[in-house]
Amino acid sequence: MTRTPLIAGNWKMHKTAAEAVALARAVAEEANRRPDREVMIAPPATALFPVAEAVRGTRLILAGQNVAWEEKGAFTGEISPLMLADCGCAMAIVGHSERRHIFGEDDAMINRRLKGAMNHGLVPILCVGETIEEREDGRTAEVVEAQVRAGLADVNPESGRELVVAYEPVWAIGTGRTATSGQAQEAHAHIRAVLAQMFEKDIAAEIRILYGGSVKPGNAAELMAQADVDGALVGGASLDAQSFAGIINF
Question: Which one, 43, 62, 139, 248, has least CB within 10 Å?
């Protein structure tokens, strides 16, 4: 089946509000030129409101870089799904390797965040991926499958249509190293097979699986040509309008 490609930019802890608005406007122009694909950006939380205003009426999708599982409460530093929706977000990233490895978020917490997003109408992007040690030990499939199963535990099968998975090998994030197109396809095909076991085959066939890890204009087309690679989750290259445009127009 045909899945609409999704090109997603994760800006991480970069850009003031004014800088974010300028970049978002440039990206929105590219998004409007490509009705055959979806384009998403995840600015820092401080920039979400002004960015939403700046790109209102365009095809650009906004996302949170993370999301809490509660609507409100004593959770200092967190941002709830209701708050993200109020800022104009339609999606939220969960389980990014930096959240897992720097901030110690485990699979159980990531699962709560994912369900919190889905319960309030946000489309989650569940990030999974192995470290270099795990890959060298031949454990890529095992690690990725465990993260997918734990992250999506107790998710209603029909709701599976309303999610995105991103395969991000930890060893390729921000390092300049990129999985080969063959390595990416192998991991993506395994993820889709796991999704088919968890949900139904036709549902798994609809779920978009993105590749993340040093995606650049020069390697985007080869990665996107793989059968189970349905887009990209882009870090550093999404911080420059021209570079990100090169990936959007792979």
Answer: 139
